[in-house]
Design a protein that fits this description.
Alpha-Beta Plaits; 12-stranded mixed beta sheet; Rossmann fold; 3 domains; elongated; homodimer; 34% helix; Dihydrodipicolinate Reductase, domain 2; 6-stranded parallel beta sheet
Chain lengths: 433, 433
């Protein structure tokens, strides 16, 4: 086999990790020695870097790598959306397969990118885009393909899981913990994408497409972040036997008349029973539970981020490409390639059905619990537990956990409860599994 | 793409599961519809079966399927070793790829089988041979190939894990629990391969070859089963903060002068701290921890056996073959194919180094603990804890947990302790992680 020649575009954390693996003295499969870096495109060639590079690898213009007939595979690790998208599409049109760690681009422009790859008979591989070093994209494309996937639930963002673990273990405040996470390098300078749940939504969008086979409208995924989580909610949840984690949830619903598969997808901070395997996933680790027929339930667990794990996924994708590299378009591996095989649509927010946690601050007068219970009952919302957890200065805090109920019914009840004269404030609302 | 035509040899639990998936009304990837069963070879065509079959699929002679030019892939699910080996080798020589769930054959004759497959330019895929429905073979072949694998520890036999879980939760006796497991179908009529650890050794042998790249001499894997585990040991372990599980362990040691990688491999019942993720793996579930550079630690968890999960792995292998099927020998996918890329050897029993648990029955006289401690010290065995746990009728039970120590030093100490006049019996010995 001839060598596999790659062009790397971007040389940040992941790019450097890829370079280190390819130059490493680790005891690895000999096939890795067949991967040759033709060039690395960076913004500023002369910038000081904490890594020693072989001569003349750095270049300024990414498009030179794309146009280089010597290059077989483009590794896109610059991040961002606009330029990255352009680089990916132009690479595919130049009949070069692409390996990317860019969840934002794939979640938003997957449709266009996958179909362009198919058109030009090349691949777009994305193992590094979701859950760092955990093999999840490949199993969804291949090993699990003999199953009907029914449901995926996961902790797939390391930053928020680090923050929530720290808040839980040390009773620390959200803002302080976020600052610490930034200091330790576990959260970015602008943490919006992580803490508001957008990064998690990008990832569950990608996994959903692979699992259920249809394009997903990324923007219609109901997404809540962890910014509003109060240390009080964590304490109450712990008391009641739960941990709070930011979860991504995606479930097949039913196929409608137009043969489009309806999907129940959401991202939200969630109470998880302490007996549930996901409740033990701490720090920057990720885990994803997959429920499938006839397989049953499996869990994949591991480091969700970091230079080493993410780069390991990039390099395994390069190896995959190298192993199945073929110039013959008609024989492209259809599982490795991935393309949509059906239509999907996300169900409306009001139709999403789940368990809920509600913390209500109200006056400490007899009968409040009864009134709240009545209002839920009237709206057909069944309650799992309702507990008065704290009372001081004539005020009481009531925590309600419902059974599974549609968002529509739950939101209606919430509005009516808010109107009760005894209720001062609905202090917080979380999901439960 | 033309259809993928398969011949199934054997129609027990797994074979029927494969048939059910291929005929299922589940909402699965359309590529599954391209798999066509040409025939199913069984011993007795007229036997009554709990499954309705399409006409004329059953045949008597497996070799007819192997010789049939219409058949692309042979699915070997008869089990056993001799006939199965012959069927696999003859299929490869007929240039047919093979999918097998047969861990015993692959663990014993992998060398011969892999090299025969390479010679004829076809594949032998074995996802179903280890850990039922958990994707573990594919990740080791592909997604993790960018890493140096350092260590694998796993619970990879469902039968023994079911028995140990039951013994732990219900304080039940070993023999009774085994009978129950047989009644429930979780243990075979002849449970030897499972309870004596041979099945676990077969599986860790296969995983080791894939992870470290060299052929392993299956017969030199130090193997202990669960037959001698006493309910008392489970109780004591629990008291001290451990669960007892049958573990498979495989670790890279070092490369010796002759460039052969030395491996530390064993199968043994083992005390696992309750905080360890493997301690939570109960019932017929399996899980495997893989420690790799630069990846870090991942865990794959799921159903380790059963018709559905195992058949799902068989079918995913068929899909894999179908997706990369090529008559061109020179372009065979080297990752999917797998072949050895180095030499390995298993270190000698006396060199294996691990923590140990020892339960000693002795006379309840002052100074015994001191004498035992001295003997260990003299032999350079460092002790983590030594506890007197039960005393009655002038007898005492002493439990010792050592730090990591070579089997050689430990066995020498054991002999000397056994010679102490106060020591009546070394009642049991287990490993620890």
């Amino acid at each position: 086999m001839r060598k596999c020649k790659i062009g790397i575009i971007g040389f940040g954390t992941v790019g450097k990790g890829v370079y280190r693996i390819l130059k490493s003295k680790n005891d690895i499969h000999p096939i890795l020695k067949d991967i040759e870096i033709v060039g690395i495109a960076v913004k500023n060639i002369n910038k000081k870097r904490d890594i020693e590079l072989e001569n003349n690898l750095l270049i300024n213009d990414p498009y030179k790598l794309i146009d280089d007939p010597n290059v077989d595979v483009i590794v896109e690790v610059i991040g961002g959306t606009d330029i990255a998208k352009d680089i990916i599409l132009k690479s595919l049109r130049a009949r070069k397969s692409v390996v990317t760690a860019n969840k934002a681009v794939i979640a938003r422009y997957g449709s266009e990118i996958y179909s362009e790859a198919a058109k030009y008979g090349v691949f777009v591989l994305t193992e590094a885009a979701v859950c760092g070093g955990i093999p999840i994209i490949e199993p969804l494309k291949r090993s699990l393909k003999s199953n009907q996937i029914n449901k995926m639930v996961g902790i797939i963002n390391g930053t928020t899981n680090f923050i929530l673990t720290k808040m839980t273990n040390e009773k620390a405040d959200y803002k302080e913990t976020l600052k610490l996470a930034q200091k330790l390098g576990f959260a970015e300078f602008d943490p919006t994408a992580d803490v508001e749940g957008h990064d998690t939504a990008d990832k569950i969008s990608i996994l959903t497409e692979l699992a259920f086979g249809g394009a997903v409208n990324r923007d219609s995924i109901t997404t809540e972040g962890i910014e509003k989580i109060n240390i009080k909610d964590i304490e109450y949840a712990n008391k009641l036997g739960f941990e709070i984690k930011l979860l991504a949830f995606s479930e097949r619903n039913h196929v409608n008349k137009e043969e489009s598969l309806s999907l129940n997808i959401w991202v939200a901070p969630c109470l998880i029973p302490k007996s549930h395997p996901l409740s033990k996933v701490d720090g920057v680790n990720n885990a994803i539970l997959i429920e499938a027929s006839p397989l049953g339930e499996i869990m994949l667990y591991g480091p969700g981020a970091g230079s080493g794990p993410t780069a390991a996924s990039v390099v395994s994708d390069i190896l995959n490409l190298y192993a199945s590299l073929s110039k013959n378009i008609s024989s492209i591996d259809p599982l490795l390639a991935f393309n949509y095989w059906r239509d999907c649509h996300i169900i409306d927010f009001n139709q999403i059905s789940k368990k809920n946690y509600l913390r209500i601050i109200c006056s400490d007068t007899p009968g409040v619990i009864g009134k709240i219970g009545d209002l839920f009952g009237k709206n057909d919302v069944s309650i799992e537990s309702i507990v008065q957890l704290d009372a001081s200065k004539n005020k009481a805090e009531i925590v309600v956990i419902t059974h599974e109920v549609s968002n529509g019914k739950f939101e209606k009840s919430k509005k009516e409860i808010n109107r009760l004269s005894e209720v001062e404030l609905i202090a917080s609302q979380l999901s439960c599994i």
